[in-house]
Description:
Aminopeptidase
Amino acid sequence: MLSFMGIGFKYRGRVVTDADVVFIRELISKNPTASRWALSKLLCEAWNWVQPNGALKDMVCRGLMLGLHRGGHIELPPVRRRTLNPLAKRVKPRAVKVEAHPIEGRLSDFQPLEFRQVRRSKDEATFNGLIEEHHYLGYTQPVGEHLKYMVYSGDRPCGCLAWSSAPRHLGARDRFIGWSPEARRNNIHLIAYNPRFLILPWVRVPHLASHILGRMARQLPMDWECMYGHRVVFLETFVDTTRFRGTCYRAANWIVMGQTTGRGKDDQTGRPNRSIKDILGYPLQRRFREILGG
């Protein structure tokens, strides 16, 4: 969202001054045949506006330029192409066929477990289909930076976990960490949110879920760095208290930081409109407050 701050414009944590607006106008003038897409890439390169993994923030940049255009501060070239937004009309994952014979017994009977990061792999469709069919919330596309895992015992899947970018504003978490609004804007990418955790319904192995969470806490930071160029230092999730107690998270030493307000991020009424959820967190480093608050 673009907002006027008196000294400039603010978009996604970046303040754009009058001098920046002049620079963008000159960039457009010097590249009269460039499309909006090409201009956003040129601006990202000029500003060195990149993600931690080095990729250009050209989608964010296009949003900034469009806001300035609509406000009358710059004049963008006409739209040349309209790309379909896959989030606006996303096809639900197809059902997948997996062996559903019961997996029962002691945890030691099924070791070693294999954790496969399946995003951008041939197994991603299987992950999506299992979540859609067997998780009570169904499948939704994770937001921002994200990874997807399937947990196997031998060649049989027994669990699925998704990790994504964390919600920007979460009162109980923000108070627990004790960071300032500026530190939150700068360091929110160091938190990974667990929106889906599924133990497949035919799997009945005591302590499996908490064991998986413990293994994930060790593996996720390295995999995140390989994909995005930075590690995460804190994990968080929601537990719907009308359905669950969050026993596996508590057994894996996750901390209850508080509860949601029940209003959602787009609330306009100030009144609860959904179930209250516990907010749980797990620090991956002892100095997590220092790192996140720095």
